[in-house]
Design a protein that fits this description.
mainly alpha; flat; about 110 residues
């Protein structure tokens, strides 16, 4: 759960959040833009914590793992849950961060503020 949260959910949130910040500024909503910018910084810390502490948590159950492998495992589990990616594509997609996050996230219509 921790690996999924930090290496998938939070890691893939940056693109959408940056687009939201731009939209908030465009519509002169400074409070929402600033709050979102703080949220981006907070999520960055969470990803860094996950990179550092995720492998330490795995050690507690006897699994020596690198942050990269932990991230790929979490992404593979997410792709398998979605059931929209062919099994032979999962390994390749799990290693490609931009492509993976494109599958994981939804498109928002920021102009419909």
């Amino acid at each position: 759960m921790y690996a999924w949260l930090t290496m998938v959910a939070e890691a893939c949130s940056f693109t959408k959040k940056r687009k939201a910040v731009e939209a908030f500024w465009k519509f002169n909503d400074a409070l929402s833009a600033i709050q979102s910018e703080f949220d981006i910084v907070d999520e960055r810390l969470h990803v860094d914590f996950g990179t550092k502490w995720g492998p330490e948590l795995y050690k507690q159950v006897g699994d020596m793992i690198t942050p990269q492998l932990m991230t790929e495992r979490a992404r593979k589990r997410r792709l398998e849950e979605l059931q929209t990616v062919q099994p032979d594509e999962i390994d390749k997609l799990a290693k490609n961060f931009p492509a993976f996050c494109g599958f994981h996230t939804n498109i928002l219509e920021y102009n419909n503020y």
